[in-house]
Design a protein that fits this description.
CATH architecture of one domain in chain B: 3-Layer(aba) Sandwich
Order of helices and strands of chain B: HEHHEHEHEHEHEHEHHEHEHEEEEHHHH
Shape of chain A: elongated
CATH topology of chain A: SH3 type barrels
Structural class of chain A: alpha+beta
Oligomer: heterodimer
Number of helices of chain B: 16
Number of strands of chain B: 13
CATH superfamily of one domain in chain B: HypD, alpha/beta domain 1
CATH architecture of chain A: Roll
Number of helices of chain A: 2
Chain lengths: 92, 377
């Protein structure tokens, strides 16, 4: 019930009722976009964006830059480990 | 799948696990007790078991499964009230799939469906509203449950019904709120939680600011976390770093979807349609003040509670069930007397065995995967 899926907004199909078509892993589905419309996100700017879809509603726009930053941190956690290993190897 | 696969890389997981191992050895707790992290949300419980993360983490670190599975915390009498509504000849009763098999005192919604009543599983509350539009001679009731994550969807569906003049659509509202719930857990006697994995999708609605009391008043770290394996591991790593440094802060690992202030466009329909309840009865936790919402006066005509004669909700579980103790983290799922014997996902006695997000069901279904996961890493 708490799990949502990232999907890409393809087209606005019914602005009156705030409905858009999304591509959800190759499946097209109509979702309500009321929760992702805001001063900074008009219906037009939403097209092509990735959103989290939950029970037929887009709940939040995926921030691509933040996603990239998180992945970079994950990389760095690994790098730190690799550096520590190198240091250990050097000590021997 | 974009934004999913990147967060499932086993190589990365292996590296973080080593960092987590190291941190665990550096954190010393009194009486040599394990480090306990509560994942509040059932979605996290499901992911932890699905990917076997509990088996990969050091023995010194334990997950305590929190009360964040909306199906699991429903008292049986709520299911009885669903059945009371659905037994009406002119009613089409609609619900998310998770709630179909939750046992009431005598039967579940699935049993009632087998008896021939019109009960339909829907993917979205909007689908339930469409069923109402297509069946004007029936009363269509949607069983609304879940934390703040599902509230905007339900509220917007009610607003849509009003806009389109659909007057045969009703909501049986059992939505619950996360903050009083976490507070009730923190105030439970005997609780020894060292840190919290914050519910990611609730946070994208309410933001991270409401959690600050957990750090400020209870001195516990909380990290709002995503649901992929690397999200969870990174969040655990962030909590451990705080514990090691003697800090208690609210942090956000799930920044790609969650911001500090939440989502105003999702909060506004919640405020439009709902008001706080005085109290809400929980399975395993009892009555918690202001932990649920109901439909406000403006939208009263859509309120199933006002339309159907319902009984007062009381919390009674089968005597043999120990769901309450498991919910509070006092017992592990497999320590319950009926776990895997009289109570299985096929024939659940207690609610924790019903939903795939319930601690017992997740443990029963995924607890045996360890060899497979070890091969993969």
């Amino acid at each position: 019930m708490c799990l949502g899926v990232p999907a890409q907004i393809k087209e606005i199909v019914d602005m009156d009722n705030q409905m858009a078509m999304v591509d959800l892993s190759g499946v097209s589905r109509a979702v309500n976009i009321a929760c992702v419309l805001s001063d900074t996100n008009s219906a037009e700017t939403l097209i092509g964006q990735w959103v989290l879809v939950h029970v037929g509603f887009a709940l939040s726009v995926v921030d691509e830059e933040e996603a990239y930053k998180t992945l970079k941190i994950l990389d760095e956690i690994g790098e730190l480990y690799a550096t520590m290993e190198d240091l250990k190897q050097g000590e021997k | 799948m974009k934004y999913v696969d990147e967060f499932r890389d086993p190589k990365q997981a292996k590296k973080i696990l080593l960092e987590i191992d190291k941190l665990c050895t550096e954190i010393v707790l009194p009486e040599d007790r394990p480090i306990q992290i509560m994942e509040v949300c059932g979605g996290h419980t499901h992911s932890i078991f699905r990917y076997g993360l509990n088996q990969l983490l050091p023995k010194k670190l334990e997950f305590v499964h929190g009360p964040g599975c909306p199906v699991c915390v429903l008292p049986r009498s709520v299911v009885d009230n669903c059945i009371r509504i659905a037994e009406n000849e002119d009613v089409i009763f609609t619900t998310f799939g998770d709630a179909m098999r939750v046992p009431g005192s005598e039967k579940s919604l699935l049993d009632l469906k087998a008896d021939g009543r019109d009960i339909r599983m829907v993917y979205s509350p909007l689908d339930a509203m469409t069923i109402a539009q297509n069946n004007p001679d029936k009363r269509v009731v949607f069983f609304g449950l879940g934390f703040e994550t599902t509230m905007p969807s339900t509220a917007l569906s009610i607003m849509q019904a009003k806009k389109l003049g659909v007057d045969n659509f009703y909501l049986f509202c059992n939505h619950i709120t996360i903050i009083p719930t976490i507070k009730a857990v923190l105030d439970s006697p005997g609780m020894r939680i060292d840190g919290f994995l914050g519910p990611g999708h609730v946070s994208l609605i309410i933001g991270t600011k409401p959690y600050h009391f957990i750090a400020d008043e209870y001195q516990k770290p909380l990290v709002a976390a995503g649901f992929e394996p690397l999200d969870i591991l990174q969040s655990v790593w962030m909590i451990l770093k705080q514990l090691k440094n003697g800090e208690a802060k609210v942090e956000n690992q799930y920044k790609r979807l969650v911001n500090d202030n939440g989502n105003a466009s999702a909060l506004s329909p919640i405020a439009e349609v709902f008001e706080l309840r005085e109290f809400f009865e929980w399975r395993g936790l009892g009555s918690i003040n202001h932990s649920g919402v109901k439909i406000n006066d403006k939208y009263r005509q859509y309120d199933a509670e006002a339309v159907f004669k319902l009984k007062e909700v009381t919390v009674t579980d089968p005597d043999v069930c120990q769901c309450g103790e498991v919910l509070k983290g006092v017992l592990k799922p497999w320590q319950c007397k009926v776990f895997g014997k009289e109570c299985t996902p096929e024939i659940p006695l207690g609610a924790l065995m019903v939903s795939t997000e319930g601690a017992c069901s997740a443990h029963y279904s995924y607890g045996q995967n360890i060899d497979l996961i070890n091969q993969k890493l």
